[in-house]
User: What shape does this take?
Amino acid sequence: MSKVQSVLFEGPAGRLEGILKYQAGAEPGTLAVVCHPHPLYHGTMHNKVVFAIAAALFEAGCRVLRFNFRGVGLSAGSHDKGRGEIDDTLAAVRFLKEQYRAHPCLVAGFSFGAWMALEAALRDPTLISVVAVSPPLQYFHAKILAQLSVPKLFLQGAEDRICVPEVLRGLYPSVADPKELVLLERAGHFFEGHLTRLKTEIMARQKFLGIL
Assistant: This one.
């Protein structure tokens, strides 16, 4: 039976609010942290795309933690233009790994959250893979992606007008292997009408992501 638990854990700017979903009575398996879109544009852990990513990872067998960045919901602090939010992501990873020691952990995110997930994976070599949905790669230096050697799954709406797929296509050849790119035809930035397809594409790459 699935369980949903509200959690509070310590971040560098104070307490962070999260929601942990897991199968009661089951071995923890792979852990997953999911990051939400930009806080200044109403991004929270309750965003529909974040919820879909978390649901896909849960159905693939993960224990999944969604959380609010600093200054969002019940999370302490204020927005830090991505710098502190990377630290928040790493704090969420530490919290989850402290609960379930010796279990592998991956990180995922949508839009701004995908940026945070990729940056966190660059800083924490214990993370096993990254799911980056609609990543805002216009903010990246290509060197970051060239240095990140864990499996990276990029999912992008072909009709995205916010994080345009042409930027991802242009940077993709310089991204370190292993990597996969999935373009969802007719899908926009928020995947309206395509969330089931998004979930299916993530679940189909369970082995690639290292999910036990």
